[in-house]
Design a protein that fits this description.
alpha/beta, 7-stranded mixed sheet, 5-stranded antiparallel sheet, 19 helices, disordered N terminus, binds adenosine-5'-diphosphate
């Protein structure tokens, strides 16, 4: 597909319409001019017509006057009437009336359709010769009068000289002007009609012309649409040698260029995909190759540590195991980053306890933090959702990296983890996590770099702190996958604060923990020199409706107790930090005891990992409970309730000692091509009290399985001759006839998410990732032993 922008919505006004519209105004103006000209001509014509009618009427009246001379002279009314009736035969004559000189009507003849009453009255003198009569209901007509005189010496149509003879009477003729008006009306409609017709004609001719000119553009538009949809093999037809033709040629050139670039891009893409595939393959192989020997190193060293050893040898071996674990950490980081970048890392979606995860992370850094004398605390405000659905493993990874860095780069002070509910809609929540420290800080110019892979604030060869510079790069990608973002604020020498958000869903069916009613109203004193710890403890205890007071030192606590003991409501419980300047926790406890004797509150000591306290000393000082920081909320609640005797510790199920479970000895077939791993697995399985058979590849495994007597197969995936997946498939096929099912557990060094699915779909029952953890292996052995029928 070519990345051309779509051509957009269909044109709202086509070029043709626009061109015609643009031409419309001048054409209309020209037509208007023509119309005005026509109108002027029409007016002229009207005048000529009018004159002609008047002339005709007058000559008719004159002629009748002459004809009537004799009859008028003789007073012959019948003769006059006859002449008048004859005149009615002339077209358009409506009536003829003859009057005496005194104005008396002698004769009036009218057409049948014209009533005699409608003949207008005329005053005897001062009337115009021609009178136009307009009546809406009757035909319009002209009333023309002519005097009857004797022997008119004037030529027939000479009206310029007045006839001086005495008039014998007057003849009036009514001549209809209807024909004249009809002619006028016809021409009145005809002219604009003609104008409109010519306008329509001009526009249609113009439109046709425009279509002819623009038709090749339509073809070009259709062509570019096809190009946009990815059809690059077509070319636009070049039909004319004008601008449109040139446009078509330019388009063709552009498409050819595009086709060439696309072919090159596809080639490059193929190469890149192939390179990426090779990289993934290489990573998978590397992972296998590095993890397998490392697995051997860790497993064998741990086994060696189980033996009786001189202390310094034990120390060497511990260091070796720690280094191997560190190496495994680096390897995991590199693999994680590659997986994220290759889009192969998928987030799980499972219900988990956020509080437990946080405690887990905090506990795992407790030793390192306290070894450096750092306060490590977690602020968990009430109302923060606890049961969530998401990927706890990846969340823990991000938190562990941030807390690990904070501890690593801080020499004095504290490391604080805070969680807040930032937003929620329905059952979706956005949580904000902040990890802040009082460490060395990061220079402002390095702040934007540290989230890039392999970048460190101090990248020099003389740098003081180790690390690969991958942790934050992985964190920022994981956080983005969790729908959040990560940012940092830092001041060199003062500390850093990493803040990230992540989206989760609330886990259904998990009721919020009920407030322990037993603790409500109990008065408790928190003694800690670290203000953050004091605040967090006070908030937590206050959240259980306890009445909390705080003291920043032993002396302050003693003063407070002295004061309170006098009152009616003494302090019942005291949470005492073991390590404080001046009066430490133990000394404070001693003095409290001294001061108050049996009235002393119950004391719970909170201490760092490094501070040891023997039971006798604690009892002597009246310390009822000893907790190692950081203390999780749940753990604190349990401890407080228990110490106050409000709830008994749930009895723990007696743990099975390491080794065989249920008294069942399994015969385990270990299929592994690497001799070191073979020996390690053999040692681990034997140490758990089970029997071992060994096979070096899939074919040997099939043989051993066919011989029988195997309860469980631990099957490596990558092996020569026949790999673990194929060997499993063959076993499962053969089992179909017997209906049996031997448990097969995959052993794989592959670290890709799809591996688990591949193993399960090949017919394996479970999956152990290398390096195989002793605990996981024992779990598998125990489960298998439980499922097998008793011998
Ligand atoms: P690594 O810790 O392995 O070097 P990271 O990606 O976790 O890699 O961190 C990158 C760099 O960011 C560190 O090398 C350090 O310079 C800086 N950095 C991270 N966290 C902190 C912190 N809390 N205080 C000071 N500097 C830090």
């Amino acid at each position: 597909m070519i990345g051309l922008a779509p051509l957009g919505p269909r044109l709202s006004r086509s070029l043709k319409v626009q061109a015609v519209t643009a031409n419309f105004l001048p054409v209309a103006a020209a037509l208007l001019g023509v119309l005005v000209l026509f109108a002027a001509l029409w007016l002229l014509q009207l005048r000529v017509l009018q004159n002609e009618v008047v002339l005709r009427a007058r000559s008719l009246a004159e002629s009748l006057a002459r004809q009537s001379e004799l009859a008028a002279l003789l007073g012959d009314r019948a003769g006059l009437a006859q002449i008048a009736r004859r005149a009615l035969g002339v077209e358009g004559v409506l009536y003829v009336a003859v009057a005496s000189p005194s104005g008396e009507r002698l004769v009036t003849v009218t057409r049948e359709e014209f009533s005699a009453g409608d003949v207008p009255e005329r005053p005897v003198s001062g009337t115009p010769e021609v009178l136009e009569v307009r009546a809406s209901s009757k035909p319009r007509f002209l009333d023309v009068a002519a005097e009857i005189r004797r022997d008119d010496p004037r030529p027939a149509f000479d009206w310029s000289r007045p006839n001086t003879e005495r008039a014998l009477g007057t003849v009036r003729v009514g001549l209809s002007t209807e024909r004249h008006w009809a002619l006028y009306r016809r021409s009145l409609w005809g002219i604009p009609l003609l104008g409109l017709l010519s306008l329509a004609l001009v526009l249609s001719v113009q439109y046709r012309q425009m279509r002819k000119v623009l038709a090749p553009l339509d073809t070009l538009i259709e062509f570019t649409r096809r190009v946009a949809s990815g059809e690059l093999s077509h070319r636009a037809p070049v039909e004319r040698h004008d601008e449109v033709g040139e446009l078509a040629m330019a388009c063709n050139e552009m498409v050819s260029q595009l086709e060439r670039s696309r072919a090159e891009l596809l080639k490059a893409l193929d190469a890149a995909q192939e390179a990426s595939r090779l990289k993934s393959e290489f990573l998978a192989n590397m992972s296998h190759e590095i993890r397998t020997p490392l697995n051997g190193v860790i497993g064998m060293t741990e086994l060696a540590l189980d033996a009786q050893l001189p202390p310094e040898v034990r120390e060497y071996l511990r260091t070796a195991v720690d280094s191997a674990h560190a190496l495994m950490g680096v390897l995991n980081d590199i693999l994680d980053l590659s997986r994220v970048e290759a889009g192969k890392l998928e987030l799980a979606s499972q219900a988990f306890d956020l509080e437990a995860e946080l405690e887990n992370v905090m506990k795992s850094f407790a030793v390192a933090a306290h070894r450096k004398g750092l306060e490590l605390s977690c602020d968990w405000p009430a109302g923060t959702p606890r049961w969530l659905v998401g990927d706890p493993l990846r969340l823990r990874q991000v938190l562990a990296n941030l807390v690990g860095n904070a501890v690593k780069f801080t020499h004095a002070g504290e490391v604080l983890v805070q969680v807040v509910l930032e937003a929620e809609s329905g059952n979706r929540v956005l949580l904000g996590f902040t990890v802040s420290d009082t460490g060395i800080g990061i220079p402002p110019e390095k702040l934007s770099l540290i989230f890039e892979p392999f970048r460190q604030a101090d990248g020099s060869t003389t740098r003081q702190y180790g690390g690969t510079g991958l942790g934050l790069a992985i964190c920022s990608r994981l956080v983005a996958m969790m729908g959040g973002r990560i940012e940092v604020a830092s001041r060199p020498g003062q500390g850093s604060s990493f803040r990230f958000t992540a989206r989760f869903e609330r886990a259904a069916g998990q009721a919020p923990a009920a407030e322990p009613a037993e603790l409500a109203g109990l008065r408790v004193l928190v003694v800690d020199d670290n203000a953050t710890n004091r605040k967090i403890l006070a908030e937590t205890l206050g959240g259980w409706a306890m009445e909390v007071e705080t003291a920043g030192s032993g002396a302050e606590a003693l003063a407070l107790l002295r004061q309170a003991s006098a009152g009616p409501h003494p302090v019942q419980l005291m949470l005492l930090d073991a390590v404080m300047p001046e009066l430490d926790g133990f000394e404070t406890a001693r003095r409290v005891r001294q001061l108050m004797g049996e009235q002393a509150p119950i004391i719970m000591m909170l201490s760092s990992v490094g501070v040891t306290a023997d039971g006798r000393r604690c009892r002597r000082l009246g310390i009822a409970r000893y907790l190692v920081k950081p203390v999780g909320r749940e753990e604190l609640l349990e401890a407080v309730l228990e110490t106050l005797g409000r709830r008994r510790r749930p009895s723990e199920a007696p743990r099975e000692p390491h080794g065989r479970s249920g008294g069942r000895t399994l015969s385990v077939l270990v299929v592994e091509d690497n001799p070191v791993n073979q020996r390690l697995l053999e040692a681990l399985v034997r140490a758990a009290g089970h029997q071992v058979q060994l096979a070096g590849d899939g074919l040997q495994a099939l043989e051993a399985w066919r011989r029988g007597g195997v309860d469980l197969i631990l099957m490596d995936v990558q092996m020569p001759k026949l790999d673990g997946l194929e060997a499993t498939r063959r076993i499962r096929r053969q089992e179909q006839s017997t209906g049996e099912h031997i448990p097969i557990v995959a052993l794989t060094a592959h670290a890709f998410d799809g591996d688990r699915d591949r193993c399960l779909s090949a017919g394996m029952d479970d999956y152990l990732s290398k390096p195989v953890s002793r605990a996981r292996l024992l779990e598998v052995l125990e489960r298998t032993a439980r499922l097998l029928p008793a011998p």
